TrEMBL record:
Gene Ontology cellular component annotations, sorted alphabetically: plasma membrane
Keyword Membrane: yes
GO MF entry, a single one: ATP hydrolysis activity
Ranges of compositional bias, category Low complexity: 343-353
Broad class of the protein's primary localization: membrane
Record's protein name: Branched-chain amino acid ABC transporter ATP-binding protein/permease
Mode of membrane association: Multi-pass membrane protein
Source organism of the structure: Agromyces archimandritae
Highest taxon, organism lineage: Bacteria
Matches recorded under PROSITE patterns: ABC_TRANSPORTER_2
Location relative to the cell: Cell membrane
């Protein structure tokens, strides 16, 4: 392992960067002229607000057009506590301002649980407009009497206040850095890509959205509080909906979920109007410039920060590939490493892995069936997609679920997974009746599923993704073991560069890491080559004993089904045509007739 990838270095480097930024901030606070210092504080406050926007829009993919309203909440609370001469001083007021804005963020985020896209944009913009009107009426506490906000004692001059604002920015950036790498951060990226995919791994979509709104708004509140300390008498004109819109455009254009780009956005926020002023152009034209940059970003489908990173990664990958070729020519690199794929270890080689112990324990117990389904019925209008389906999946087994197109296989997975609330019938997982439990609750009970469509968020690394899906603490060795078992690329790989077929394998690996009681696989081999089909089949056949779980495999490839499944259930027009040991089911004349139409094909 390279030094840069070791845990201490990975933990410490953000603090080192923050320390360097603080030292640079101090040098600038001493060296810059008074006017530039004022502008610099404005850039810092804007950067913190944009950092927050990066979470809600960049990471979690929701349109929020009221970031400066959250800033106004922070400024208002700081002004109020200043007038009340509340204990703790400015730093405490700033934190309280951020917390208050976070609470307001949760309230504004509530509609986001139901609304998406333009509708959510309209709601947040409407909120910004309403807050603007209210603010003009009620004004900031102390503004009518001209009571200036008391800055922190040691940072009362403009220069030292700039230094203080840099410290606040560094702290906010560190918090965002670690949040982005936490389960919350992964949940934001997951929910932006697929809400169903997020719920299916046991992560509440509601929590993911509301935490994104709360953290984003709290950062907005801190930014507003800081601005209040800068101007000392804040006014509503600093927090208009138009400015919120411009800030949103800057966040989208720069790629504000990347911390450096949020800082860059803050600089642009100040630089563009300042340059226009120097060139004798009205500063309001700055909004037009931001608008043009935003349109460019939206039409190109990427943003500045991501574009630069993609270019960098491409060149780094090319350099690494060239180095591997050279090493291979010199005879120093094994083939598997060259391909960037860890070779799957043989079962014998991995016999002492944690998964095997787990399996042995589970096998030893006389476990109830992994899944018992009785009279499961799902209707879409007049169509009964599932009509009284009953089946049992024994513990530690692989059951194949097959049937012609439209037979009801995916509907079965959706219904068992809790995605179809109108489903009737009884479903028991490991003896526990699931009743009306949500998909998230079912996933937490040990029911996992994969999807026919790609639900793997490309913005994560494989490591972050599989840990998120696992939903429990897993060691690096466990992650590497499961990835290697399914022939996936190494944990460090970014998912952006991974093809769809391999992403399906990674989805399977992540769900296996969750140690579920039952895993429903909906055509996991789609997009894989023939060799990969065969390899996946061998691993799935081994998985129950190795990981102590049961699998329901939906697959059209009968060779794969034959090689993996001990039992089969055949669906046709939403009914069970046959169910039992593989040989018996495949020899059933009704199955042959309905499923394939020709005896020879079975
Ligand atoms: N949301 C829906 N609304 C209405 N009809 C639906 C819906 N989802 C599925 N169906 C219908 O239910 C039936 C079963 O569909 P389902 O997708 O479960 O079949 P399947 O066996 O998974 O097919 P395939 O092998 O093509 O994936 C089909 O007739 C389908 O058109």
């Amino acid at each position: 392992m390279r030094l840069a990838e070791s845990r201490p270095v990975r933990m410490l480097w953000p603090f080192a960067v923050a320390a360097v930024a603080i030292v640079a901030g101090y040098a600038l606070s001493v060296g810059l002229d008074g006017y530039t210092v004022f502008l610099a504080v404005s850039a810092v406050t804007a950067a913190i607000a944009i950092l927050g926007l990066g979470i809600v829009t960049g990471s979690a993919g929701m349109i929020a057009l009221c970031q400066l309203t959250f800033a106004a909440v922070g400024a208002w609370i700081v002004s109020l506590l200043n007038v009340l001469e509340a204990p703790g001083g400015f730093v405490v007021w700033l934190v309280l301002g951020g917390l208050a804005a976070g609470v307001v963020g949760v309230l504004v985020g509530l509609p986001a649980l139901r609304l998406r896209g333009v509708n959510l944009a309209v709601v947040t913009l409407g909120f910004a407009a309403a807050a603007d009107v209210t603010l003009v009426q009620i004004q900031f506490p102390g503004s009518k009497d001209g009571i200036p906000i008391a800055r922190p004692e040691s940072f009362s001059s403009d220069r030292s206040y700039f230094f203080f604002s840099i410290i606040v920015l560094a702290v906010c950036a560190l918090i965002v850095f670690f949040l982005q790498r936490s389960r919350w951060g992964s949940s934001w990226k997951a929910v932006a890509f697929s809400e169903r995919g997020t719920a299916a791994v046991g992560q509440s979509v509601r929590t993911a959205k509301l935490t994104a709104f709360a953290v984003s708004a709290a950062l907005g509140g801190v930014s507003g509080g800081l601005l209040a300390g800068q101007v000392q008498l804040p006014f509503a004109s600093s927090f208009t909906p138009l400015q919120s819109l411009a800030l949103y455009v800057l966040a989208v254009m720069s790629g504000a979920y990347l911390i450096d780009m949020a800082v860059f956005g803050g600089l642009l926020w100040v630089l563009v109007p300042e340059l226009l002023k120097r060139w004798g152009v009205p500063q309001d034209w700055g909004f037009v410039v931001f608008g043009v940059l935003g349109v460019q970003a939206l039409t190109s489908g990427t943003n500045l920060g991501q574009g630069i990173r993609n270019l960098w990664w491409k060149r780094a990958d090319a350099r690494a590939a060239a180095a591997r070729v050279t090493a291979r020519r010199d005879g120093t690199t094994p083939l598997a490493e060259e391909a960037g794929v860890d070779a799957a270890p043989s079962p014998a080689a991995t016999a002492s892995s944690p998964g095997v112990d787990l399996a042995a324990d589970r096998l030893a117990a006389s476990a109830p069936p992994a899944l018992e389904v009785e009279h499961l019925t799902v209707r879409f209008g007049a169509l009964a997609a599932l009509d009284g389906v009953s089946l049992t999946v024994p513990a530690n087994s692989v059951m194949g679920l097959i049937g012609p197109n439209g037979a009801g296989k995916s509907t079965f997975v959706d219904a068992i997974g809790g995605f179809l609330p109108n489903a009737e019938g009884t479903v028991r997982l490991g003896g526990t009746e699931l009743g009306r439990r949500s998909p998230t609750a079912r996933a937490r009970l040990g029911l996992r599923r994969t999807f026919q469509q790609d639900r793997v968020p490309p913005t994560l690394t494989i490591d972050a993704y599989v840990r998120f899906v696992a939903g429990r603490r897993v060691s690096a060795a466990e992650v590497d073991d499961v990835l290697a078992f399914f022939g996936c690329p190494s944990a460090r790989t970014r998912l952006t560069g991974v093809d769809v077929g391999t992403r399906r394998l990674i989805e399977v690996a992540g769900n296996v890491l969750a140690a579920p009681k039952l895993l429903l696989l909906d055509e996991p081999a789609a997009g894989l080559s023939h060799e990969e089909h065969v390899a996946l089949g061998a691993r799935l056949a081994e998985a129950p004993a190795r990981f102590g779980m049961s699998i329901v495999l939906i697959e059209h490839d009968l060779d794969l089904v034959r090689s993996v499944c001990s039992s089969l259930t055949v669906l046709d027009f939403g009914r069970v045509l046959a169910s039992g040991p593989q040989d018996e089911v495949l020899a059933d004349p009704d199955v042959i007739k309905a499923y394939m139409g020709e005896t020879e094909m079975l």
